[in-house]
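User: Could you check the structure of this?
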Amino acid sequence: MGALTSQNTPTQILLGARKCVDDKEYDRGASLFTAAGAYGKFDSLRVPDVSAHTIIPDFESALFGQLDNESKANFKSAVEKLYKSDADRLNVCAQLRTLGPPTYYPTYMLLHGMSQFTGRGGGLRDDFNRDTAWETALSTYVKCPSPSH
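Assistant: Sure, the predicted structure tokens are below.
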């Protein structure tokens, strides 16, 4: 996680998570997988085209769906452990707060949606609030406590 920047897209981060799984570094992969999910959730809050949001689960399926059974089980166990362990989850929360919200333009998501083909409903939300969206992504996807706690 320390090598991530706010310019890394969820798809890039997921590639890193897959590399960790291939290297049998399941806990590290779980942390990256969680970071990718938080960034993907943030992007889904700023991209109004709901059809574009499927890029994250589609990409996850493509990357992790072909793993052998042992790797799948070990990775799933690492992700579950991260969410069940308050210490592990809070550590990831702290790292994500330090990293901050994405600073890239979510082209990867915008190009995936139907608005790309229909010419309607594309772009970002007009009423988007970056700080609120980041807190929402952290609290709903990663289950991070609010920063005031």
